[in-house]
């Protein structure tokens, strides 16, 4: 099936309903089926609703994106261990979900990430080093969201889904044919803001796609602590389609997100995509998953690794040779080196930055306190001169 | 345009109308703001004239109202949202505090948040629970927000114009019990600075500082005190963040005494901050400690008791007498 045929479908007859719910009702006790186009063994499979025919270049590109993202992520974890970053939220294991969905976007689409969407940032052309300022503690984000249509990382869980919905309402008002992609996780699915964003987007038919990376764990709490139904099924109650996709299958994530975005762009309203994946690492570098989950579980998910399965496909289909993989490894190392150097040379902000940007139009109290602070700082210099 | 006499709520309506006329990016959002014109009819007729696309009835979810307004602001719109009553703002408090207030700083100034949140506030209307509160200090405490409250029709018009024109988020507290009070509004006037306090009655013996619904109470108290031969100066603060301490200071340097009046509980309220600052600035001018008159540290009472809870002329004059007794 092509993107066009998905777009032509009426919202009521959702792709999700036909493609997954209809089938899964036959075996209700089992886990619902997920859209898969590339098996963990690296074999291409077809799905009636989500056909995709990537060129060898595109396949290599997706592989490169995932490898570089993983390398960047590993480097950031290392930098945290070495004290260069205060914290890092690793995306390890979620590369396919992020690269697949990220590469489904058009330039004029807009993304609202959580704080873990390093792979999506990569797809949007945000320089990886820009992501590290907040984790080093030199800013709270600071990149220009409008440069890459990639909003700042949002730390409060679920808040950004409402921003995405409002932004999408604006897109619709402007008559633009772009879409908005809102990321959140299984934990966030319990937040009221996420529920409200489903309500608002449905009521206003806003062109927003909700991309839930269900990585099974909200810090220590498994998805069972968040929901009694598969998360994608929540969409049905709000009146828009939901679909579960193999979140470790970059092709499925790409195909489904493309279809969902196209649906939104063509005025058919929101859609929920649940990318079923796994957080291979800790919640953040401050977390210790050995306290709440088994190593067997992780080992099981290692067999579903998103990068390995695409490498298998590329190798088996002879779409990439050793020269390609070697060059990519060198590129990865160069990226890591660049990131490492950038972080180490990242200057602390000037003391007076404390007062900057609190308001756009200024504020008398901030002015007063800034002056007091400056005088206080200067008093030490004067005292030293006096000695 | 000549000055017209209109009620405070009509002045807000006129101000919203002007803003919708002047800037296609201005949107009105809230519960029941469309066909009904809001539960207080403040937005009466706006949806009819500007359409459902610009005067938007929202789902009954306050966090959603503010959260989507943030998204619309990111898209270049200037949403003016209504929270139906003071006590219903708290589902949106998270979005206001963690997102709206901080977005400009988080983005190092690259993202502006021109969002106005209108909140009818205060008591004195015999309402049920959650319909009479004064939560302004909870917002003034948050860096990144500006908090204002008009006390009269002219300020209601102009302060809202200025709030909508601001690139910062502004919480605009409407004194609901003054909605029907009429005053002159000159829509062709040139307004003064948004956050400047104003001396609304000159006096020499003591300064009464108030805002919103309490300005009338302060003026009434000053009139009553005049009959007893006491000259009270009344300052309409107009803005709770920032607070125009300079104007209060200048007044207190003349009078030597200050009483701050608001409906909100006095504990850690606007009056507490003014007392601290003015004590610091005017220590050698003060003839008496700064006194506060306001609500008690108790939930807003059932309406049969609200007259005991709310500052009135007698409670203000009681504080005035205590200050003058030093």
Summarize this structure as a short list of keywords or feature phrases:
A: 387 residues; Rossmann fold; 2 domains; two-stranded antiparallel ribbon; 7 strands; B: 326 residues; alpha/beta; five-stranded mixed sheet; 12 helices; 20% strand; Alpha-ketoacid_DH_E1_comp (chain A); pyruvate (chain A); Pyruvate dehydrogenase (Acetyl-transferring) E1 component, alpha subunit (chain A); oxidoreductase (chain A); thiamine pyrophosphate (chain A)
Q: Helicity of chain A, in percent?
A: 40-55%
Radius of gyration of chain B: 19 Å
Tally of distinct domains of chain B = 2
In terms of DSSP E residues, the strand content of chain A is: 5-15%
CATH topology of the largest domain in chain A: Rossmann fold
The biggest beta sheet of chain A reads: 5 strands, parallel
The stretches of 5 or more residues of chain A where confidence is low (pLDDT under 50) are 1-29
Overall radius of gyration of chain A:
22 Å
Mean pLDDT across residues of chain A: 92
CATH class of the largest domain in chain A: Alpha Beta
Task: Estimate the helix proportion of chain B, in percent.
Answer: 25-40%
Spell the H/E element sequence of chain B. Answer: EHEHEHEHHEHEHEEEEHEEHEHEHH
CATH superfamily of the largest domain in chain A: Thiamin diphosphate (ThDP)-binding fold, Pyr/PP domains
Class computed from helices, strands and strand pairing of chain B: alpha/beta
Organism (chain A): Streptomyces himastatinicus ATCC 53653
Protein name (chain A): Pyruvate dehydrogenase (Acetyl-transferring) E1 component, alpha subunit
InterPro entries (chain A): Alpha-ketoacid_DH_E1_comp, DH_E1, PdhA/BkdA, THDP-binding
Region (Disordered) (chain A): 1-36
């Amino acid at each position: 099936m092509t993107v066009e045929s998905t777009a032509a479908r009426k919202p009521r007859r959702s792709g999700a309903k036909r493609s997954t719910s209809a089938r899964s009702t036959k075996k209700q006790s089992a886990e619902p089926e997920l859209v898969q186009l590339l098996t963990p063994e690296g074999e291409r499979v077809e799905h009636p609703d989500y056909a995709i025919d990537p060129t060898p270049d595109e396949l290599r590109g997706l592989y490169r994106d995932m490898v570089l993202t993983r390398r960047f992520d590993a480097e950031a974890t290392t930098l945290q261990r070495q004290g260069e970053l205060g914290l890092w939220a690793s995306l390890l294991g979620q590369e396919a979900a992020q690269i697949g969905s990220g590469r489904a976007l058009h330039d004029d689409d807009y993304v609202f990430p959580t704080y873990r969407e390093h792979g999506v940032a990569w797809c949007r052309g945000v320089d990886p080093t820009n992501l590290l300022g907040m984790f080093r503690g030199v800013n709270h984000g600071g990149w220009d969201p409008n440069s890459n249509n990639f909003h700042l990382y949002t730390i409060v869980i679920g808040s950004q889904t409402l921003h995405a919905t409002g932004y999408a309402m604006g897109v619709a008002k402007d008559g633009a044919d772009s879409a908005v992609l809102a990321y959140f996780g299984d934990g966030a699915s319990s937040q009221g803001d996420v529920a409200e964003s489903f309500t608002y987007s449905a009521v206003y038919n806003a062109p927003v796609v909700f991309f839930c990376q269900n990585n099974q764990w909200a810090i220590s709490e498994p998805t069972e602590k968040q929901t009694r139904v598969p998360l994608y099924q929540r969409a049905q109650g709000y009146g828009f389609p939901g679909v579960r996709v193999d979140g470790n299958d970059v092709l499925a994530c790409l195909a489904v997100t493309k279809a969902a975005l196209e649906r939104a762009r063509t005025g058919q309203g929101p859609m929920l995509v649940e990318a079923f994946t796994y957080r291979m690492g800790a919640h953040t570098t401050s977390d210790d998953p050995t306290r709440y989950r088994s190593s067997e579980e992780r080992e099981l998910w290692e067999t579903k690794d998103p990068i390995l399965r695409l490498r298998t496909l590329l190798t088996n289909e002879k779409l990439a040779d050793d020269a390609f993989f070697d060059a990519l490894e060198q590129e990865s190392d160069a990226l890591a080196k660049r990131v490492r150097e950038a972080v180490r040379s990242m200057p602390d902000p000037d003391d007076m930055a404390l007062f900057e940007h609190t308001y756009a139009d200024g504020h008398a109290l901030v002015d007063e306190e800034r002056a007091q602070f400056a005088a206080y700082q200067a008093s030490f210099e004067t005292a030293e001169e006096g000695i | 345009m000549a000055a017209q006499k209109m009620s405070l709520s009509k002045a807000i309506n006129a101000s919203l109308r002007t803003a919708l006329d002047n800037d296609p990016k201005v949107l009105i959002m809230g519960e029941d703001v469309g066909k009904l014109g809001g539960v207080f009819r403040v937005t009466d007729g706006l949806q009819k004239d500007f359409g459902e696309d610009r005067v938007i009835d929202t789902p009954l979810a306050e966090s959603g109202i503010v959260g989507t307004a943030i998204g619309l602001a990111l898209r270049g719109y200037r949403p003016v949202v209504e929270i139906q009553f003071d006590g219903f703002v708290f589902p949106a408090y998270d979005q206001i505090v963690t997102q709206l207030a901080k977005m400009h700083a988080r983005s190092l100034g690259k993202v502006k948040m021109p969002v106005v949140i209108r909140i009818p506030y205060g008591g004195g209307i015999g309402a049920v629970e959650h319909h009479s509160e004064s939560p302004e200090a909870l917002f003034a405490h948050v860096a990144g927000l500006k908090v204002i409250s008009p006390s009269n029709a002219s300020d209601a018009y102009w302060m809202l114009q200025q709030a909508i024109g601001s690139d910062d988020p502004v919480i605009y507290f409407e004194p609901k019990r003054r909605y029907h009070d009429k005053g002159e509004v000159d829509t062709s006037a040139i307004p003064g600075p948004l956050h400047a306090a104003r001396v609304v009655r000159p006096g020499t013996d003591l300064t009464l500082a108030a805002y919103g619904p309490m300005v009338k109470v302060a003026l009434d108290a000053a009139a009553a005190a005049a009959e007893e031969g006491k000259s009270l100066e009344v300052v309409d603060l107009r803005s709770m963040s920032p607070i125009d301490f300079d104007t209060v200071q200048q007044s207190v340097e003349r009078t030597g005494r200050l009483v701050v009046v608001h409906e909100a509980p006095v504990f850690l309220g606007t009056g507490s901050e003014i007392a601290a600052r003015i004590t610091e600035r005017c220590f050698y001018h003060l003839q008496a400690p700064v006194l506060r008159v306001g609500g008690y540290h108790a939930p807003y009472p059932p309406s049969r008791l609200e007259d005991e809870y709310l500052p009135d002329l007698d409670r203000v004059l009681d504080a005035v007498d205590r200050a003058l007794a030093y």
